[in-house]
Amino acid sequence: MLIDRKQLKELIPVIAAQRKFRPAIVEKDYYLTVILNNIESLLTDKIVFKGGTLLNKIHLNYHRLSEDLDFTYRSTGGLETRSQRSRAIGPIRDRMPEFLQVLGAAPVDFPASTLCCGSYQILANPDAAMDVSAMILEGAVKAGAEALVLSCPLCDYNLGKKQSELLAKNKISTEVPVFYFTQLLALALGLDKDACRFDLTEKVGTELLKAKNYPGCEALYAA
Q1: Which residues contact 96 (CB under 8 A, 6 or more apart)?
Q2: What are the sequence ranges of the domains in the chain?
Q3: What topology is assigned to 95-221 in CATH?
Q4: What CA–CA distance (Å, rounded) separates 47 from 72?
Q5: Best CA proximity match to 1, nearest among 189, 222, 204
Q6: To which H or E segment does residue 179 belong?
Q7: Burial of 110 (0-12, 13-18, 19+ CB in 10 A)
Q8: What are the pLDDT digits (tens) for 125-138?
Q9: pTM
C-alpha cells in the first residue's frame, strides 16, 4: 500500500534530516522499496535480489541508500543461446501486462508484441531491422493500441527514434507514441515531471498525454 502523497511529502524531509540523506534519495528509496515488494510477490521464484541495495537494506542498517535494484535470474536450464535466454525470461515478460494494468493501463495483445525490434541489426542489416520494427508498430496500431511501452533502449531507438524514417519509406502508416515503462510507473506514482522525463519523449507521445489530460504534465503541453 502506498503512503498518501501529501503525507509522504511531509515525511521525507523529516527522515532526510534524521538520517542525513538528501530528500530526493529518501523519496527514491521509498519507491524502490514499493517496487521491490511487488516484484517479490510476483516473481520470487524466478529472480534473486542482490547487490548494494540488498546489503544496505538487510545487513548494513542503511549505511547508504543505493539508487537501483539488482537481480539475478534463477534458471535450471541452459542460457548459452539467445533463444534459450529469450525462453528463460518468458515468465517475467508474461507478467508485464499485469504490471501495466496495476499502473492503470489497458494492455493490448497482438501477434508481434513480443518480437525483438531487430536490436543491433539496425547497424548490420538496417533494412531487415526496420521491416521488423514496422511489423511491430503496424501490428500495434491495427490492434487498437494507443502507445508502445518499452524497457529496452534499442527498442526505443528502433521503434521510436526511427519512426520518421519508417514513415518516409512508407513502411508504417502513422506515428505511434513510445514510452519507457519506468515513465508510466513514475506517472502512476504521482512523481513530478522531472522524474517522468517526458521531455525525452517524441512529440506524438506528449500529444497523447495532453489528450489524456494527465496531471503534472502541464509544462509539456505548452511545449
Answers
A1: 107, 149, 181
A2: 5-81, 95-221
A3: Rossmann fold (3.40.50)
A4: 6
A5: 189
A6: strand 178-180
A7: middle
A8: 999 999 999 999 99
A9: 0.71
